[in-house]
């Protein structure tokens, strides 16, 4: 009887897995009421127990979710009922239930994430003078038309299609780790693989290689189509000579559905969910192991480059715990793995010491000279942390506890108080009208003795700042002014001298982490060559980008987030921070 029950349970699990699926779709359209659409997705996806990612913007939606096939079908019907989604291509595929927790977590399939974003896919790491208009995107070619165009190697598909007198170029809009394991291959067609780490690198590649596209019929493709929408519009925005741009409708996924034997696509299609990749009937393996060069195309181990954190292929035989890997792009730029002999006589691979250069981001890091030369065992970076206005080292340490925990294996955070001590102030909790007598008014505030309070400090202060001379609390002159930073123009020289003492006494440091006014102070340190005058402020995007131009290639990164006035510690931001810091270990 027990065996019978176990068999029924196993059968039930198998049926549950067979009923599981993944749904992908996107739609570029003007969204008149984002909050209403956000409420719809929250309610619908939650009620259907769907997991995955939903991204909403004023210009459309981008959705990748998983769940029971019946639930996904109900979701599709609900979305179709909204007029905005007329003509949407819903890509629904049955697959196994997520079996690898690590992969499922990394791909966002262990929870439901619904966010409002500026861009459905991040096209550039910096604002363009004029963003491409997606309504000007390249013409869609069906899988059959795309196949025919490749087969004809530049001849007419139909009267309204490719220009007959133009050469044909095939452009892959995906990242290097995707093209490693699968791509279109047609001997008589020029194929361009940009070999980029991330999609936001593509515009720069297009700018640098525009002559290879000028005057050609450009056929573009990506996983599901969304990346080609913006990229094809960007190419067409270049004007004369760039008009003939076409994109594979539905991406590689729709092509493989039309041509199950693979057609002209060789290898596997990398996907951004727990399936990792989807192949055709053609079992040939295109990818190779980074270390031994043997055929291999399985990313399930999630091995990454120790410098840039891009996925790399390492076969089962070569893979080791805590191993150091360097991707082909980092190798191309001179990054290497060096060997070190451990105390037990075993040889270890480590990342070589590098001389750190000044870097900048919304939260700014800047360098200190390296403490020594030669190959040394892996160590932690020492990062000096500068708090914000009217804060202190202790408070900042508490606020960054989550960050410190996630960086514990690669960085030690060192906290110091700023040199300018500020008076203790309080804001009345009742109005002057309710209590006209000043002594009675102040007595209503229950304030702790100042000797039991931690001091509050600043790096930059207003010219009329008195500092902390009194021992008692002072009543604030006015409510909090969000523009107070405009008045905080003094105190830099004192702070600079103070930091020199800190560097000499407690250094060396590998970098500086600045938050709010601390970030302004770090920015001023970075900009000393330009002798810029500084005021405390939350560093504007444009200013961060201007600062980043002062630094050497590979020594800066800008991380944009929508988490508010904090240092983000959730994925994917913490992964970007870790990846950046790993460059300097």
Automatic annotation (TrEMBL):
GO MF entry, a single one: zinc ion binding
Origin: domain of life: Eukaryota
Protein keywords: Metal-binding, Zinc, Zinc-finger
Cell membrane as UniProt keyword: no
UniProt cross-references to Pfam families, sorted A to Z: FSH1, Rhodanese_C, UPF0176_N
InterPro entries the UniProt entry points to: AB_hydrolase_fold, FSH-like_dom, Rhodanese-like_dom, Rhodanese-like_dom_sf, Rhodanese_C, TrhO, TRHO_N, Znf_FYVE_PHD
Domain Rhodanese: 164-264
Protein known as: THIOSULFATE SULFURTRANSFERASE/RHODANESE-LIKE DOMAIN-CONTAINING PROTEIN 2
Species assigned in the record: Salix koriyanagi
Source organism phylogeny: Eukaryota, Viridiplantae, Streptophyta, Embryophyta, Tracheophyta
């Amino acid at each position: 009887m027990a065996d019978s029950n176990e068999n029924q349970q196993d059968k039930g699990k198998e049926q549950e897995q067979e009923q599981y699926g993944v749904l992908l779709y996107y739609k570029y359209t003007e969204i008149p009421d984002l909050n209403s659409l956000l409420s719809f997705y929250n309610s619908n996806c939650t009620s259907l127990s769907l997991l995955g990612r939903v991204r909403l913007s004023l210009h459309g939606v981008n959705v990748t979710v998983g769940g029971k096939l019946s639930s996904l079908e109900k979701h599709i019907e609900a979305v179709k009922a909204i007029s905005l989604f007329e003509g949407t291509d819903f890509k629904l595929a049955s697959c196994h239930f997520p079996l690898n927790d690590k992969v499922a977590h990394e791909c966002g399939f262990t929870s439901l994430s619904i966010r409002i974003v500026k861009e459905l896919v991040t096209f550039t790491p910096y604002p363009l003078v004029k963003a491409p208009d997606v309504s000007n995107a390249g013409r869609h070619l069906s899988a059959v038309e795309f196949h025919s165009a490749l087969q004809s190697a530049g001849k007419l598909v139909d009267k309204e299609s490719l220009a007959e007198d133009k050469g044909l170029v095939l452009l892959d809009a995906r990242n290097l780790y995707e093209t490693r394991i699968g791509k279109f291959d047609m001997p008589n067609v020029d194929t361009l693989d940009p070999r980029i780490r991330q999609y936001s690198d593509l515009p720069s590649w297009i700018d640098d290689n525009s002559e290879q596209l000028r005057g050609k019929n450009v056929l573009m493709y990506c996983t599901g189509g969304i990346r080609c929408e913006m990229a094809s519009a960007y190419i067409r925005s270049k004007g004369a000579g760039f008009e003939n741009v076409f994109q594979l409708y539905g991406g590689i996924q729709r092509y493989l559905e039309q041509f199950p034997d693979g057609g002209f696509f060789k290898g596997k299609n990398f996907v951004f969910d727990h399936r990792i990749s989807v192949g055709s009937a053609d079992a040939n393996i295109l990818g190779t192991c980074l270390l031994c060069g043997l055929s291999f195309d399985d990313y399930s181990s999630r091995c990454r480059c120790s410098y840039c954190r891009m996925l790399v292929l390492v076969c089962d035989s070569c893979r080791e715990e805590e191993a150091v890997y360097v991707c082909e792009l980092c190798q191309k730029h001179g990054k290497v793995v060096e060997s070190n002999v451990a105390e037990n006589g075993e040889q270890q691979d480590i990342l070589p010491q590098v001389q750190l250069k000044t870097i900048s981001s919304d939260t700014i890091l800047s360098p200190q000279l390296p403490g020594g030369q030669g190959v040394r065992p892996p160590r932690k970076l020492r990062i000096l942390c500068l708090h914000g206005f009217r804060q202190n080292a202790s408070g900042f340490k508490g606020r960054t506890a989550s960050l410190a925990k996630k960086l514990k294996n690669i960085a030690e955070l060192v906290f110091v108080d700023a040199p300018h001590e500020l008076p203790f102030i309080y804001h009345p909790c009742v109005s002057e009208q309710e209590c006209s007598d000043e002594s009675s008014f102040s007595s209503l505030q229950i304030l702790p003795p100042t000797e039991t309070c931690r001091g509050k400090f600043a790096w930059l202060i207003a010219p009329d700042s008195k500092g902390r001379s009194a021992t008692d609390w002072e009543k604030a002159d006015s409510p909090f002014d969000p523009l107070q930073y405009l008045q905080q123009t003094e105190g830099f020289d004192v702070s600079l001298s103070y930091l020199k003492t800190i560097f000499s006494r407690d250094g060396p440091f590998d970098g500086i982490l600045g938050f709010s006014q601390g970030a302004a102070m770090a920015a001023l340190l970075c900009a000393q060559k330009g002798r810029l005058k500084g005021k405390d402020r939350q560093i504007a995007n444009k200013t961060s980008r201007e600062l980043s131009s002062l630094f050497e290639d590979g020594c800066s990164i800008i991380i944009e987030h929508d988490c508010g006035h904090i240092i983000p510690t959730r994925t994917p931001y913490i992964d970007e921070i870790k990846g950046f810091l790993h460059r300097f270990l």
